[in-house]
Amino acid sequence: MEYRHFIGNAWKAADNGESLDVIDPSTGEPFAAIARGNAADIDLAVCAAQGAMGEALDGPWAKLSPVERSNLLFAYAKAVLDHADELAQLEARDTGKALKTARTDAAVLARYLQYYAGCVDKLHGETLPYTTGFTVLTVREPIGVTGHIIPWNYPMQIYGRSVGASLAAGNACVVKPAEDASLSILRLAEIAAETGFPAGAINVVTGLGGEAGAALSANEGIRHISFTGSTATGALVGRTAAERHCPSVLELGGKSPQLVFDDADLDEALPVILNAIIQNAGQTCSAGSRLLVQRGIYETVIERLSARFEAMRTGPSSMDLDMGPLVNKKQQTRVRAMVEDAEAQGIRVAARGKIAVEASRNGYFQEAVLFRDVPPQSRLAQEEVFGPVLAVMPFDDEAEAVKLANGTNYGLVAGVWTRDGSRGLRLARKLQAGQVFVNNYGAGGGVELPFGGVKASGHGREKGFEALYGFTSLKTIAVKHG
Ligand code: NDP
Asked: Which InterPro entries match (predicted)?
């Protein structure tokens, strides 16, 4: 199967006629090809999006009323649910993720679209008290054409949270999916067209990050860019956007800690702690990849978690085990190198999961690994692994726990497990993170809950109304009437 770009509700061949192989991570074999986009393809997509907006918000997309826009987004959510199985199968093959994870992703995408569909006609401004003789109001207007650089770990969910919010705000979108995860996004653009979105409202250009992605972030017609991915590429995209005064939202991953106190309910905590690092084979920006455990229960937690890690099984996405393969060879090499480096440093492995015997030797498999007594300044405690690898370390008291938790460059998510309500709240205020969960982690996704980082985890917020505001331009209108 040879996929093209999807621009202006039509399939378009790459300007240079070139394509890239799409590899099945479960086998290491190519099974399709995508177009290798360049700056000319991005220009075409931006032009199509500008056409949908029109010169004076009079294009076929921009001129829709809020209710019409909302209805289209609701219809899109329904169409996604109708195609959920097809989308999940496509995603699992393309990215290697376990089928159950891909099914959840399709459901969450539909939920994003429903949420933002419901927001469209509630996106209002304010009237502001001002000097006598004036009436002052604010209105939230679309920004224009927005760019979306989407990574390979949760393509459908990230498409939902950024493209869904941008469309709800009335913008037209140009999307550059990761070269390793383009197929679901292309199909989603096609489904949008079938649902009735006008040509140009959603455009997808596939290709390499350094070519199509770089061209998108540099394109003068792009008025806002949202990016999820590594800190290094995020800095590049942010810098390119800043040079032309284009706002950006950067979501750049983390080394998120969970703090487990002596009084925690371990029956409740341990399954959540496990899932937070195993889900999607650890390729999750908000993965709970550091576990800080109070000394009194340290050995108990290690023992109970070890049993769970040893039971973890990894295999081809079609087997739908606890984990599928990692997305590509590069990611497998990176995770393996970090595991080997930690072992070479003398960091102890407490437990390892297993790779299914049926798994192809050419697939990008990585078993779950539980490391104990991890030194806080080690690479394993400081750097994002982006694999099913958990670093556990002990602490004695609250002050030490906070110091350890805040002791990395990242600050995306944190979790606190304690039966002491005051402590939960106290720590929630002290932890440097965009989201803090007390006696839970991730809150099951929560499309309504603003999400984003501090420090090297990035800036700006996705999800919830906060994201929607970010996709609008606030205009103040001051009328002097005497
Ligand atoms: P990147 O940050 O390089 O890729 C993320 C997205 O950016 C992809 O769509 C990629 O496209 C695109 N991209 C790459 N280079 C550029 C560029 N110069 N200009 C614009 N867009 C670009 O991450 P990697 O895929 O290389 O993964 C490396 C590490 O990043 C992972 O191991 C993990 O630690 C982290 N990561 C974090 C994610 C998160 O959710 N926060 C998601 C993915 C990765 P393409 O893939 O086609 O090159």
From this structure: Ald_DH/histidinol_DH, Ald_DH_C, Ald_DH_CS_GLU, Ald_DH_N, Aldehyde_DH_dom
